UniProtKB/TrEMBL annotation:
GO biological process assignments: cellular response to glucocorticoid stimulus; phagocytosis; signal transduction
InterPro entries with a match to the protein in the record: Annexin, Annexin_repeat, Annexin_repeat_CS, Annexin_sf
Family indicated by similarity: Belongs to the annexin family.
Domain free text: A pair of annexin repeats may form one binding site for calcium and phospholipid.
Top-rank taxon, per record: Eukaryota
Entry keywords, A to Z: Annexin, Calcium, Calcium/phospholipid-binding, Repeat
One Pfam family linked to the record: Annexin
Lineage: Eukaryota, Metazoa, Chordata, Craniata, Vertebrata
GO MF annotation list: calcium ion binding; calcium-dependent phospholipid binding; phosphatidylserine binding
PANTHER family per record: ANNEXIN
UniProt organism field: Dissostichus mawsoni (Antarctic cod)
UniProt xrefs under Gene3D superfamilies: Annexin
Protein's UniProt name: Annexin
GO cellular component, one term: nucleus
Length: 360
């Protein structure tokens, strides 16, 4: 086995164990200048905000709870009012509304909306009422429960959350479902794919922002040479547990020394769930917003719409980087995300998605 400096390891066809992943996944380098996504507030560096949903000014939880109660209890449910409140309040504000609603009505807001709404509008509204760790835990539970496992959802969630977010997800998962997330992953997946997911769940990614461009260039050359060697057919990235690291720099250099991109090279060298996992991880490290833009595009491409993907991405990224995703979507597909939503969805469900885009 040879290990590259930015964490991508080229491994022969020998078995891959957990200690190998743990050891390698700590050696990653982020390809992002510290000042790109940072502003200074009162002299302190603060991450820029790329969400489309912002806290509602002059917020009043009691007033909003009363408005929602009236809209829900009308002879004909006022969907427009419900939507207006949910998409124009931050997640933190929605949590406060939930508490006041239950205190004043004796009912949970979730149950009230379940009885008042239906179909996709119900699903997206309930998703908006969950705080991020509960929503992520719910997504992972849904992806592993029942017939078949939704591997792409497991990778999407675990590869795009920070160390602290993953720790919170594991805590909430245990509280909500009385099972350890690691045990569920082990039961529902297999082989190298399981090993990669468990490594992600270690939440030990290197989240530093420094980078060594010379090392990244050398790593790309090593990767290219390894890809040309039949005896070394597998790429195992340490960036598996650091989706924001490594990938954007070395893939660029890889493209300079090879006729194909690094994600494409992974595609040629691997197969099965581990292939999809590592390709998604490299893509996320290269340009996370573009990955989500692609997911949204595929969800609305062709006949039928994958509502689960639309809801999952739009809700989970609305207070993270949906502005970036919208920009990437237009650049990649020459049409705005809002236009795509208008063409592919209808009614109040469409209104919610447009609202999350910031089109109030």
């Amino acid at each position: 086995m040879r290990t590259t400096n930015f964490g991508l390891s080229i491994v022969c066809s020998t078995p891959v164990n957990m200690s190998l992943f743990k050891d390698l996944f700590k050696k990653v380098i982020r390809n992002r200048k510290p000042d790109e996504d940072t502003v200074f507030v009162k002299g302190k560096p603060t991450p820029k905000y790329y969400g489309t949903v912002v806290p509602y000014p002059n917020f009043n939880a009691s007033s909003d709870a009363s408005i929602l109660q009236s809209a829900i209890e009308k002879d004909e449910v006022d969907n427009d009012v419900i939507i207006a409140v949910l998409v124009k309040r931050s997640n933190e504000q929605r949590q406060k509304i939930k508490v006041v609603y239950e205190a004043s009505t004796g009912k949970s807001l979730e149950k009230a909306l379940k009885s008042a709404l239906s179909s996709d509008l119900e699903d997206v509204s309930l998703a908006l009422l969950m705080d991020p760790p509960h929503f992520d835990a719910y997504l992972l539970r849904k992806a592993t429960k029942g017939f078949g496992t939704h591997e792409h959802v497991l990778v999407e969630v675990l590869a795009t959350r920070s160390n602290q977010e993953i720790r919170e997800i594991k805590r909430v998962f245990k509280e909500e479902y009385q099972e350890e997330l690691e045990e569920v992953i082990t039961e529902e997946t297999s082989g190298d794919f399981t090993t990669a997911l468990l490594a992600l769940l270690e939440a030990q990614k290197d989240e530093s922002v420094e980078i060594d461009q010379d090392l990244a260039r050398k790593d790309a050359e090593i990767l290219f040479e390894a890809g040309e060697t039949p005896k070394e057919p597998m790429f195992l990235p340490s960036s598996t547990s650091c989706p924001n690291a490594a990938g954007r720099s070395s893939p660029r250099y890889y493209a300079a020394v090879s006729d194909i991109s690094l994600p494409k090279a992974l595609d040629l060298e691997l197969n099965g769930d581990i292939e999809e996992c590592l390709i998604d991880i490299v893509k996320c490290s290269w340009n996370k917003a573009a990955v989500f833009a692609e997911k949204l595009h595929l969800a609305m491409k062709g006949y039928g719409t994958c509502e689960d993907t639309l809801i999952r991405v739009m809700v989970s990224r609305s207070e993270v980087d949906l502005k970036k995703i919208i920009e990437e979507y237009r650049a990649m597909y020459d049409v705005s995300l809002q236009e795509a939503i208008l063409m592919d969805t209808r009614g109040h469900y469409e209104s919610v998605l447009l609202g999350l885009c910031g089109a109030h």
